[in-house]
Amino acid sequence: MSKEAYTTTLESLNDLKEYIGKEVGISNWITVTQEMINSFGTTTMDEQWIHMDVEKAKSHSPYGAPIAHGFLVMSLMVPMSYEVLKINDIKMGVNYGLNKLRFTNATKAGARIRGIASVKEIEYFDKGAKYITSWTVEIEGEEKPAIVAEWISVAYN
Asked: Disulfide: which of 101, 107, 126, 140 matches 68 by Cβ 3.0-4.6 Å?
């Protein structure tokens, strides 16, 4: 986990094929605060004690602290994706969905996470492409990541 954050910027969507099997970026660290967890829990009506009750989580959680909702951590992949890969000739991009998603480790309140992305595959079509990026969302100081996923995007140029 000693690598620095970086972004790959491409002039053309066509250039993405040169990155198949290669890392394209590492996001900056994001601190998952208790305020973020509470806001997510309130918004989604998922107000379980393991996420939102700090004192109860300290006493009863196997993690010794509140943990973030897995889907909160997943939602943070959106700003990470804008940070790690920029393609200048895209007129419209669509998050088409997740091909695969595994929540591999709990993210405690106060933890710092970051995303690492690589290009898995790309399929070009007239005026665009569908491509899959592989993601690992690391937790600073933890051996196991919070998430491993494959993210499907569709881009038009």
From this structure: 107
